[in-house]
Design goal:
The structure holds two protein chains of two kinds. Chain A is mostly helical. Chain A has one domain. Chain A contains ten helices and no strands. The radius of gyration of chain A is 17 Å and the shape is globular. Chain A starts with 9 loop residues before the first helix and ends with a helix. About 6% of the residues of chain A have low confidence. By secondary structure, chain B is an alpha+beta fold. Chain B contains two helices and eleven strands; from the N terminus they run ααβββββββββββ. Chain B is elongated, with a radius of gyration of 22 Å. The chains are: A mainly alpha, B alpha+beta. Chains A and B meet through helix 1, helix 2, helix 3, helix 5 and helix 6 of A and helix 1 and helix 2 of B.
Chain lengths: 195, 169
């Protein structure tokens, strides 16, 4: 791990190995490798791009374009171990480009609100009605927006690149690590207060 | 109960996956788009030249072989280097697809749903020395035939593969 690489959560660590292996198989000529890579990394890209503040529709487009770019320039990914970072960083750049192009910028408050509202159509949403999850969700919702975005990224993105994450959140590179720590501490405090 | 960093992060990942999940069909959509892109890049798309209803008295919608009745329909496709005739016949409720390629050269033939993005899931056959190929149990619905010549040209380069437009079985 380099100095500018954030430790991800357990979810992202497991994803990293699967994605690296899938990419290696694809490049060796096994088409199922690309299938596996797309299936494991598409949800990751979704959370990374949503954390950039794009709405759901724009996020879908960015994710699609990220994959098209990969297929066209897969040769430029020389090290299979760099594939998750290549995808996430590319998706983030595309997300910035899209949000700058957007003539109407959605107010941040809407987006944060969106993320707090359980989606009525999602069957999973009904499953998460137990106290622990909803308490945690509410606690997360009380954190500053920047904390919510940062935690979402490091929870999902395998070995995120601090430089790129910092640029996306408009924070100094050096403050990502300490901010992540403070955000987790705040979340614990919020949880403690709720119980 | 105090949660560790890892436990908290895992819970956060789960929460976002639950409350703001990627659409269920997003990965499938990506794969379908990549498959189309792949076709456009590398595969020559044949065009449908003619559709011939070989069974008199059978009425069916365009490109559809009706269920139940005995029926035979032939579709002729053409590209820059090859012509392909695909025949779909239904006898006693059993459907069969066979065809010819002109000129006859060794080829691998794949048959599968048009929207299927898994090449490994397609049915496989080979063109024999007379140019014929056969699929005894073709899938139903919107289907395509992919053909990959196994020869090389005089310079030793692989001959380009080609594919039919989707047609209904």
């Amino acid at each position: 791990m380099t100095m500018h690489e954030a430790p991800g959560g357990p979810t992202s660590t497991a994803l990293y190995d699967v994605a690296t292996d899938a990419f290696r198989r694809w490049r060796a000529g096994d088409e199922t490798g690309l299938d596996d890579l797309v299936r494991v990394m598409t949800p990751v890209l979704w959370h990374v791009v949503r954390a950039c503040g794009l709405d759901r529709e724009a996020t879908e487009d960015v994710v699609q374009n990220t994959w098209l770019t990969l297929v066209k320039s897969a040769d430029s990914v020389r090290d299979p171990q760099a594939i998750t970072r290549w995808l996430c960083t590319g998706a983030r750049r595309e997300a910035w480009r899209v949000s700058k192009l957007a003539t109407r910028t959605r107010p941040v408050e809407d987006d944060v609100l969106d993320a707090r509202m359980p989606l009525q159509t999602s069957p999973e949403a009904e499953v998460v009605t137990n106290d622990e999850s909803s308490q945690l969700w509410q606690a997360l919702g009380r954190l500053p927006e920047r904390c919510q975005k940062l935690l979402r990224i490091v929870a999902w993105e395998p070995r995120p690149d601090y430089t790129s994450v910092a640029a996306g959140l408009q924070m100094p590179v050096g403050s990502i690590g300490p901010t992540r720590r403070r955000c987790l501490d705040k979340l614990r405090v919020e949880l403690g207060g709720a119980s | 109960m105090k949660l560790s960093d890892d436990q908290l992060m895992e819970a956060v990942a789960r929460l976002y996956a639950t409350y703001d999940p990627a659409p269920d069909d997003l990965a499938d959509g990506v794969l379908a788009r990549l498959a189309v892109e792949d076709l456009e890049d590398e595969w020559e798309l044949l065009t449908l030249v003619e559709r011939i209803d070989l069974t008199s008295g059978v009425r069916s919608a365009d490109d559809v072989v009706t269920e139940g009745d005995d029926a035979t329909v032939a579709l002729e496709f053409a590209g820059t280097s090859y012509r392909v005739l695909v025949r779909i016949s239904t006898v006693d409720g059993h459907r069969r697809l066979d065809g010819w390629v002109v000129p006859a050269v060794p080829m691998k033939v794949s048959l599968g749903p048009a929207a299927d993005v898994h090449p490994h899931a397609r049915q496989q056959a080979e063109v024999d020395e007379t140019g014929r190929f056969e699929f005894p149990s073709p899938p139903t619905g919107e289907t395509r035939v992919w053909l990959q010549p196994q020869d090389t040209d005089k310079a030793g380069a692989a001959l380009p593969p080609f594919v039919t437009p989707p047609f209904l079985i």
